[in-house]
Amino acid sequence: MLSPFDARRSHQETQYVGRFAPSPSGPLHLGSLVAALGSYLRARQMDGKWLLRIEDIDPPREQANADELIKETLVRHGLLWDEDVIYQHNSHERYEQALKYLRVNGHCYFCQCTRKQRLANPKGQPCACAQLALSPQGSATVLRNTVAVHEIDDLALGRVSFEEQSKDDFILRRKDGLYAYQLAVVVDDIASGVTEVVRGADILPATAYQLALYNLFAQPAPAYVHLPLVMGDNGQKLSKQNHAPPLNNELASSNLCTALETLGLRVPSHLNNAPVTDILDFAVHNWSVALTADNPHAFDNRIDA
Ligand SMILES: [Zn+2]
């Protein structure tokens, strides 16, 4: 069976396409603004497209109306996306096709382990289910990871090594039938022609799994820029799970200045209360990934791969 995706030329020959891909599990907070802003600035600097994708593949964790709140916050911060918003719940057929391709080509097995059993399994070793021909009914679909992707050259972090993750099998579809993040994100990034992924460093370890899928689909992987995380007073990264305060849209200019500082760019004081368009214009002309990479404190809190 052939790859479900068309053969594609290398990214060097195509237009820059970036994206911001929040899950609708709650409103945006400062940490998500840093990721949105970094990816927005890259797309604008590269004269490319900036897409917005709502990653609504996990209904139990979603919050009603969060997608509307996210869009409102982006608009109020001047972060206007190109094209229609992409919703992952519309991509199920594509995920199924991709899954079928991997299954037919022998890259998957069915697993009936509980989460606890999976975690108890030694790292880098498949569970016993890998040797059994279990029924797909009530099983998770797991990728038999033989690709062994070891490293990337991240534009912000430099060379990152994934010795550990490169040997892990990982779930493509959960027991409850929901598609896993790793599969959905790669399938949608390929479908949208994304050439560069700019996101928070908390997702860095997942990159190894995603690269394995790019390989199996015979698609060129995007370039990667992993950005610093914003830490709360409790020393944990800001996240919806940690109840990070939602962004106050009334303070959009000040929020942008704070996010830019995390990215290594100090905004001159005369712009502190300027309209968001002026601050973004300044940032498009003055920010670079190198500023983030060179900011000595930016990655103090990065989660190591
Ligand atoms: Zn298992």
Automatic annotation (TrEMBL):
A GO cellular component entry from the record: cytosol
Keyword Ligase: yes
GO BP annotations, alphabetical order: glutamyl-tRNA aminoacylation; tRNA modification
TM ranges: none
E.C. number(s) listed in UniProt: 6.1.1.-
Top-level taxon in the UniProt lineage: Bacteria
Keywords: Aminoacyl-tRNA synthetase, ATP-binding, Ligase, Metal-binding, Nucleotide-binding, Protein biosynthesis, Zinc
GO molecular function: ATP binding; glutamate-tRNA ligase activity; zinc ion binding
Protein family per UniProt: Belongs to the class-I aminoacyl-tRNA synthetase family.
Full protein name: Glutamyl-Q tRNA(Asp) synthetase
Organism: Paraglaciecola mesophila
